[in-house]
Design brief:
heterodimer, A: about 110 residues, mainly beta, six-stranded mixed sheet, about 60% strand, B: mainly beta, four-stranded antiparallel sheet
């Protein structure tokens, strides 16, 4: 049973397109994280959300707690945005994270 | 530079030969964790530590040991590696147990057990 589902699994788009990656979860959570894994393997934290919306540069993350759903948007996408984007949720009072399998994004020039 | 340093980056070893993957952070973070990443499965937590001398099992602890004798170091020990432990391993740290300030990951260790 996958408690954190990401969609799509793979996404290929043209440079400049608006990108949306989705994350749905089945448990009550206290926080949700979005991370980026570069083609070389390195992982970087992008956002932590417990409600509402956060923005950093061209990246926007939103969360709807009632619908158990979060989205990561990329505006004016660029080939350097090509990476695997991973969603992870922290549930209840537990400090452990449940990880999604990731969305592989390729932006073509 | 604030970072999490893992060593080695690549390791090929034989079944049963004890090995240690080191992890060190220079940010005075309380929380440290080990993950393994396998194709199609995402990251799975092996062990985590909320502070010095405090460690706990994650989702897949079998076949692994850890220790946290100092705040900065959190080595992962495989006493008797087996081929099913072939994987990409990541160490991560965070200022707080809640991860509210995000996580800093090491560059990863690609382990092959033959």
């Amino acid at each position: 049973k996958n408690e954190v589902e990401q969609s799509p699994q793979n996404l290929t788009a043209q440079e400049g397109e608006f990108i949306t990656i989705n994350c749905s979860y089945s448990v009550g959570i206290s926080a949700l994280h979005w991370l980026q894994q570069h083609p070389g393997g390195g992982i970087v934290s992008l956002f932590m959300l417990s409600s509402g919306k956060k923005k950093h540069g061209r990246l926007i993350a939103t969360i709807n707690i009632q619908e158990k759903h979060s989205s990561l948007h990329i505006t004016a996408s660029h080939p350097r945005d090509s990476a695997v984007y991973i969603c992870a949720v922290r549930w209840g009072g537990n400090y452990q994270l449940i990880w999604g399998a990731g969305t592989k994004l390729i932006i073509k020039p | 530079e604030a970072q999490v340093t893992q060593n080695p980056r690549y390791l090929i070893t034989v079944t049963g030969k004890k090995l240690t993957v080191t992890c060190s952070q220079n940010m005075n973070h309380e929380y440290m964790s080990w993950y393994r990443q396998d194709p199609g499965l995402g990251l799975r937590q092996i062990y985590y530590s909320m502070n010095v001398e405090v460690t706990d099992k994650g989702d897949v602890p079998e076949g692994y040991k850890v220790s946290r004798k100092e705040k900065r170091n959190f080595p992962l020990i495989l006493e008797s590696p087996s081929p099913n432990q072939t994987s990409l391993y990541f160490c991560a740290s965070s200022p707080s147990q809640t991860g509210s300030d995000g996580y800093t990951f090491g560059s990863g260790t690609r382990l092959t057990v033959v």
